[in-house]
Amino acid sequence: MAILVTGGAGFIGSHTCVSLLETGHEVVCVDNLSNSSRTALDRVQAITGKTVKFYECDILDKPMLSKVMRENAIDAVIHFAGLKAVGESVALPLKYYHNNITGTLCLLEVMGEFGVKKIVFSSSATVYGKAETVPLTEDMPTSAYSPYGQTKLMIEQILKDLYVSDNEWSVSLLRYFNPIGAHQSGLIGEDPRDIPNNLMPYITKVAAGKLAQLSVFGSDYPTPDGTCIRDYIHVADLAEGHLKALDKVRRERGVFIHNLGTGTGYSVLDVIKAFETANDIKINYRLADRRPGDVTICYADPAKAKKELDWEAKRDIVQMCRDAWNWQKNNPDGYGD
């Protein structure tokens, strides 16, 4: 039996494919390559010595999804596919609602038709909105302040409603925090198109001379150094969390919600300093005005995942920074697409 990974050529998807293959799973990947690279899957195969069966497919394409299901004995789905830039979602809300929500509905309908009723969904800490207290726990109220966050929240609700309608479904909702780092081989990593949206690839591109300067948005927040605080998690730890969640949905029926984070918050300046220390490189940055929509402090309480999934993050911020730079310096142009 195989695991279908949607968006498997992306940053988190490719690392999860590595973990799946290394633990003996067969992997079938669908990806439309709109914000990812086929080369990533070639490198997944190089790392593991195993094959990923790949279909260039958009999750909005139900006939193609049906073909994938017909041609493979799929046991469960890990669903990463979706648009993910918060700022772009504000500018193009209809594009995000159509792609992320309609695409997920198409996927779920095809899964139901083929009797595949186990899914691990890539959700996000954005579903907690502008929470007043930290750490964030799974039973806290949810809200969202961007169309991107709303799509994650709506898909969570769709999956909960689906289970209520049919108790044969088993659903894992993984709310993860800020994935950074890269595979220790330096063969796969984060390769954003154009100017990065996230902090770490911005830092690595400044370190590589691809960008002149890093802008730190906001230096007057009520934090020790005035910059925002986030929970950064190594992408390899995140991938391993998906395997633990997969084990649970294959073993039990229900809806299971878990944070995947370290439980430790680092400010933007903390991360810059950690990167400089880990790699002996000076990062040129400037303090800029706050960015609309940014939350002051956001970090996880990961206790539930440890208790129920037997999972916890193992890699520290220094390793995250070292692995991120190892990927960038070995791949100055990313995958070169």
Which SSEs are present, and which pair or pack?
Layout: E1 2-6, H1 11-22, E2 26-31, H2 38-48, E3 52-56, H3 62-71, E4 74-79, H4 86-91, H5 93-113, E5 118-124, H6 147-165, E6 170-176, E7 178-180, H7 199-207, E8 214-217, E9 229-230, E10 232-234, H8 235-251, E11 254-260, E12 266-267, H9 268-279, E13 285-288, E14 297-298, H10 303-309, H11 317-330
Parallel strand pairs: 1-2, 1-4, 2-3, 4-5, 5-6, 6-11, 7-10, 8-13, 9-14
Antiparallel strand pairs: 9-12
Assembly form of the protein:
single chain
Low-confidence stretches: none
Beta strand %? 15-25%
The percent of residues in helical segments reads 40-55%
Question: Architecture of the domain at 2-181 and 232-262, according to CATH?
Answer: 3-Layer(aba) Sandwich
SS class: alpha/beta
Radius of gyration based on Cα positions: 19 Å
The main β sheet shows up as: 7 strands, parallel
Can you put this structure into words, describing what you see?
- This protein has 337 residues and is an alpha/beta fold.
- It is built from 11 helices and 14 strands.
- It has a domain at 2-181 and 232-262: NAD(P)-binding Rossmann-like Domain (Rossmann fold, 3-Layer(aba) Sandwich).
- The protein has helices at 11-22, 38-48, 62-71, 86-91, 93-113, 147-165, 199-207, 235-251, 268-279, 303-309, 317-330, and strands at 2-6, 26-31, 52-56, 74-79, 118-124, 170-176, 178-180, 214-217, 229-230, 232-234, 254-260, 266-267, 285-288, 297-298.
- The strands form 4 sheets. Strands 3-2-1-4-5-6-11 form a 7-stranded parallel β-sheet, with helices on both faces.
- Strand 2, helix 2 and strand 3 (52-56) form a beta-alpha-beta unit.
- The longest helix is centred in the N-terminal third of the chain and has 21 residues, at 93-113.
- The relative contact order is 0.14.
- The mean pLDDT is 96.
